[in-house]
Amino acid sequence: MTRTAGRPRRTVRTRRNTELALVLAAVLIAVLGYAEVGVNIDGTVPADAAEYGAALGVLALLAHAVVRWRARYADPLPLPIGVLLNGIGLVVIYRLDRATPGGGAAPTQLLWSTLGVALFIAVVVLLRDHKRLRRYAYIGALVALVLLVLPIFFPPVYGSRIWITVGPLSFQPGEFAKILLAVFFAAYLAVHRDALALTGRRVLGFQLPRGRVLGPVLLIWAAFVGVLVLETDLGTSLLFFGLFVVMLYVATARSGWIAIGLFLAAVAAVGVGWLSPHVHSRVNDWLDPLGSIAEGRGANQIAQSLFAFAWGGELGSGLGNGHSVLIGFAAKSDFILATIGEELGLTGLIALFLLYALLVARGFRTGIALRDPFGRLLAIGLASIVGLQVFVVAGGVLDLIPLTGMTLPFVAQGGSSVVTNWIIVALLVRMSDIARRPSAGEV
Amino acid sequence: MALGRSRGGGPQGRPGISVTGRRAGTFCLLLTVALCVQATRVQVFRADELDHNPANQRLTIERYSQPRGNLLVGADSVTGSEPTGGRYDYKRTYTDGPLYAAVTGYSSQAYGNTQLEGTEDDLLSGTDSRLASWAVWDAVARKQNPGGDVYTTIDRAAQQAAMRGLGGQQGAVAAIEPATGRILALASTPSYDPGSFAGSSAVDQEAWNRLQADADQPMLNRALRQTYPPGSTFKVVTAAAALQHGVVTDPDAPTGAPYPYVLPGTTTPLVNDTPVCDEPGQSLDTAMVHSCNSVLGYLGVQVGLERMVETAADFGFNDPRLDVPVRPARSNFDTRMNESQLALSSIGQFDTAATPLVMAMVAAGVANNGAVMRPQLVDKLTKQDGTTVQLMRPAAYRQAMSPAVAGQVQRLMTDVVENGTGRNARIGGAVVGGKTGTAQHGVDNSGTPYAWFIAWAKPAGSGAVAPVAVAVVIADSDATDVTGGALAAPIARSVMQAVLGR
C-alpha cells in the first residue's frame, strides 16, 4: 500500500448527520412524553407543549451546530444522549410538579438546562485542546476544595451541609468539584504513573510508592473525603473515593490499589456507620426496607420507593398515572428514578440504564482511542463519574446498596447537576473530536 | 524487559491504559447489569408482594379512583358515589342507607366492605376479570374497568313494610319467594346509615366509633348473622318430619301422645300454654293450632334423632355455608342428644337456634310443595353499560318432604292463622299459613321472650305456589304481651300484603 502525499488515504466519516437525526429524535421523544403527561392528567395535550418542544429543540440544535462547526469529528452519541436524558428529566419533573401544590420546578430546570447548554457551547468553542486543562490542575483542585468547604458556612438542608444558598439560588459545589477533581487526578497520575507503579519500598510483599509521589494525591483526596464526611455527604465522598481508586488502577495497572481501596472503604464505612446515627439508620433501612412497617412506624422512603417500582411492573402505569406523591419530599431529586420506574416500568428503566451505559461506554472508548495519557485518564475518569453516580443513586433507591443521597445525572431536579453534566458531555465531545480527527498527514 | 512497552504500552510489561481502561469499562458495565437485575427483581418478582403490602396505599387509591358500581333494588340504585376532593377520589353514598343496610352492608374507605358490598366487591370496584373486554391485554396494560352493577332480588315494598313494622323494636325480618328462593326483604333493627362512615375523615371515624360502642348493636345483621331459639315456629319442621316419616298419617286423627308427657329419663312433664292441649291423644292439627308442646315434643321423639336431624338439615339447619352470597350464621339443630333433649329441641328449645333466614326457608319450603330453594340475594350482575355478566337462576336446595306431605303441612299452617294463635296474620282475599313462636331465654327464662312468626300467603283461589314466605323475630320489645301472635304476626302480614298487593 503506498501513501499518496497530500491526499486522504480514506474519507473519514464525521457522522454529523447521524448526530442531527438522533438529536431530533431525542427532542421528539421528550415532547411526546410531555404531551403524554398532559393527556394522562388533564385529558389534553398541555398548551405549552409546542413552546416547550421549541425551547428544547433550539437548545439541542444550537449545541449540534456548534459541534458541527468546532468539533466535526466528535463522537455522534454523547450529545443526543445528553439531550434525551435532559428531556426525560424535564418531562418527569413537570409531571411531579403537577402532583405538588405550587410546584414550578420544571421551568427552573429548563433555565438551568439552558445555562448547561450554554456552558457546553462555551467549552466546545473555547477549549480547542483538552491538554490545556493540565495547566490548571492544581489550581482547579484548590478551587474545588474551597467550593467544598463553603457549604459549612451555610445552613444544613435535610441534615447535610452540601448546599450554598444565595437568595433564591442554591447549588451543590460538590457537583462542580467532581470535574475539577477528575482533571487533577488525570494530570497528576499521567505524570507520576510510572513512579507510582514501579518505584518504592516493598512492605509485606507489597510495593509502596515513595511518599514524595503518593503523598500529594493522597493528601488532596483525604482532604476532599474528610470535608465531605464532615458535611455528611456520603454519596459524593463515595463517588470521589471510587473515582480515585478507578483512576489509580487505570493509570498504574496495579490491582493491589483496588484491594487497598476496598479495604479502606470498608473500614471507613463501618467507622462512619458506627459513629453517625444518620448513616446507621440508612444501613438498617437498606438491610430491611420494610422493617419500619412491621414496627408500626409506616413506610420509610426506601419502602415507598420500592412500592413505586413494584407498581410500575413491566410496562409502567404511563406518565402521569403513577402515585409519586407518596414518595415524599425528595421525589424530584434523589427519588426521581422511582417515579420513572413506576410510570415507565421495567422497560423504561432498563432503557434508561442502557442510555447511561452507552454514554459511559463512549467515554471509555474515547479514552482508549486518545493518544495522550492525560486525555485518556480524563475521559475515563469523567465516564466513571457518570457510571458510578448512576450506580450509587439507582442502587440506593432500588435497595441494592445503602441510600446515600445523590442526584441522577441530567434527570434529577437541581441546577448544579444539570450544568455539571453538560460540561462533562462537552469535554467528552471535545476529546472524542481529537481522538477521531484524522492525523495531519491524512487530512 | 525493563522499559519494554508491550501489551498496550504499559511500563515493565504491565498492561497499559487501553487494557486497564477496558477493564474499568467492563466494571462499569457490570454495575449496569447489577442495576438491571435488581430492577427486575423488584418490578417483576417482588411486585405482587409489594403491591399488597398494607402500608402501600396504591391499591386503595386505585380502587377509589373511579365511581364504584351500584347496588340496585328493582330498577333503582340504592347506592351512589361522590367525589371527595381528597386522595381517594370517590366515596360511597347510600340513598335510604338505614332501610337497606342489612342488604347492602357498607363500603368504607377506612373500614372495608361487608355483605353484598363485600361479596361483590370485585365486580363493584371493577377488578373482576369478567368486566374486561380483552382480559389478557387489560391485565398487561393494567386497564381499569368501570365497576359493574349488582341487581338485588329485594322488593322495595316488602322491604319498606318490614322496616316500618319493626319500627323501634330490636328484631329482624326475612322474606323469600318460595318458588325461586329470591330474598324479597331482609331487615334488621335498629339499623344504621352505612354512608355515615364511607369516607376516611375524622367525621367518618367518629360515626364508626359511635356505632361500635352502641349497646343495641345497630350494625349486627339480625336477619342473617344472628341466631335465636325458634320456639314453637320449629314445630312446623317437627310436623313435616312426623308426616314425611309416617309417624303421623292423618293430621286429624288422634296421636298416641300421652298427657302429661314426662320428658324421657326425667320426672319433668312438658307443660302447655293452654288447657286445650292438656288431654292425651290430641291430633296433630289441634296440636299445631294451639301450639301444644307435649304433643310435638312426643312426636319429635317418635320420629327419632336421625330423621329429625335430616329434616332440619333439609330446611337449612347445620349448614355452615348457606351463602346468599353473604354468609349467614349457622343455624343449629344438635346431632347428638338424648330423648328428653330431642323432645325439647323438637319444640324449638334446648340448643336449637335459627336465623330468621332459615325460618323463612322453612315457611317457603312448605309453601313450595316441599322443595326448598337455595336463597338468593342477587338477581344478576351487569357491566356498567348494562351487559349481563351473570344471571342467577333459581337453584334447588333440598326436597324436605313430598308434595303430598307439604299439602298437609300447608293445611296445618292455614288452620293456625284461621283458628289458632296466628289470627293476627289474616289477610282479606288471601290464603295465609303461619306459625307463632314465643321463645323463653335467659337465666330461668328471665329475659324478654323472643316473639316469632313464620308464614306464607297467596291470593285466595290461586293454585300456584305462594309468592311470599316470611319470618319475623322480635328480640327485645317493651310490649306487655310478648307473643309471636301479638307482636310478630302483624309485621309478617304487612310484608306479605306488600308482596301480594303488587
Total beta strand runs of chain B: 16
First-residue to last-residue Cα separation of chain A: 18 Å
Main beta sheet of chain A:
2 strands, antiparallel
Give the amount of beta strand of chain A, in percent.
under 5%
Structural class per helix/strand content of chain B?
A: alpha+beta
Strand residues, percent of chain B: 15-25%
Number of extended strands of chain A: 4
Q: What quaternary form is this?
A: heterodimer
The helix count of chain B comes to: 17
Helix content of chain B: 25-40%
**Spatial sequence of strands, sheet with the most strands of chain A:** 1-2
Query: In percent, how helical is the residue content of chain A?
Result: 55-70%
Shape of chain B: elongated
Structural class of chain A: mainly alpha
Mean pLDDT of chain B: 88
Distance between the termini of chain B: 111 Å
Unreliable runs of chain A: none
Supply Rg of chain B.
32 Å
H/E series of chain A, N to C? HHHHHEEHEEHHHHHHHHH
Spatial order of strands in the largest sheet of chain B: 2-1-7-11-12
Query: Radius of gyration of chain A from the CA trace?
Result: 23 Å
